[in-house]
Amino acid sequence: MSQGSLSQEEINALFNQQATKQELLVDDFLSDIEQDVLGEIGNISLGSSTTALSTLLNQRVEITTPTMSIVERDRMEEMVQEKMVAVHVDYTEGIRGKNLLMIKENDAKIIANLMMGGTGTDIEHDFTELHISAVQEAMNQMMGSAATSMSQLIKQKVDISPPAIDLLDFPPHKLNHLVDSIIVKVCFQLKVGSLIDSNMIQFIPLSFAKEMIHLILTPAMEEVAAPVVKQDPIHTMQAAPTPIPAHIEVERPIPQPQQESPKIEHANVQRVEFSSFSEARTTSAGVGNLDLLYDIPLEITVELGRTKLPIRKILELGPGAVIQLDKLAGEPVDILANQKLIAKGEVVVIEENFGVRITDIINPVDRLTKMTTLS
């Protein structure tokens, strides 16, 4: 350090110390159960978004478990340490609110390049309107999948408007602030193949986060606190017999003589005889029913031969080793459908490929039995 001046590192350290002193605690704004619910919403939404983005980019996409913190709206610009792309998401149905997703500009260029059929390595220096449209579509698919997951959570339709894209300079001179003064900051790591390994930031207004949490917790709390429905005692209890005054004569029913049990006649029991299973399959009706199975694909295998070897011999195998099979040279090979023998044939060469010419086919009745009993 020169006399009377501070280095840039010392200035940054002072700013960081001041920011740490003013840091807000999540526990002061969200209870433990609210944090758990918001984290679960993030996990489910990000899982759907990962699948959508992976399909779009044809790359393996990973998003780590998010971490939450609380920031003041006026300090959001301090989170921007380099050029970034801001994605504004507006929830319009089922739940209403806004949030902001921020991604590094270089990462957005890679996503745009992949969307347009590139390799992700030959990105352009300038971020054009075409890049913005590509990133906008990628974010639309991601957040649309997240909205669908949210719909399943709250059991009502959730929809969003097409996300808007802003390019932020560094340091940012203007950033579209969210409404609330207190913002929930959600950070997660984004990996796209070997091309992207960086962080994304999501800003959610505290009131919007509270509303989402309320929609998740309310049905569960109502289910737990649901009153036990009591049945009408008139229907659940037998009515007590009404006492009869002594001066009223009641006509008692005359007991009827017990009837004799009917005599049981011995039934003529005969043994049931079923027709042959093989014969039943050869009937015209049985063959006609196979029309429903004709389009089902079966795996056809040509087996040259088999043998058995002890483990010691298998471990000794190497390049150039010869395994003797149980078939003689020139003997027909077996043709199997889903591991069931249906024919025999001989190996031929068709241009540059192997083929097999059928020389013997199994009896139609047996073949029908085998095909209809395939596992």
UniProtKB/TrEMBL annotation:
Q: Name one Pfam family in it.
A: CheC
Which keywords are on file for this protein?
A: Cell membrane, Chemotaxis, Flagellar rotation, Membrane
Q: Where are the transmembrane segments?
A: none
Give the matching InterPro entries: CheC, CheC-like_sf, FliN, FliN-like_C, FliN/MopA/SpaO, FliN_T3SS_HrcQb, SpoA-like_sf
Statement: the UniProt record of this protein carries the keyword Cell membrane = yes
Q: Give start and end of each CheC-like protein domain.
A: 33-69, 131-165
**Compartments reported by the entry:** Cell membrane
**Which Gene3D superfamilies is this protein grouped with?**
CheC-like, SpoA-like
**PANTHER family with a match to the protein in the record:** FLAGELLAR MOTOR SWITCH PROTEIN FLIN (PTHR43484:SF1), PTHR43484
Q: What name does this protein carry?
A: Flagellar motor switch phosphatase FliY
| Organism expressing this protein natively | Pseudoneobacillus rhizosphaerae
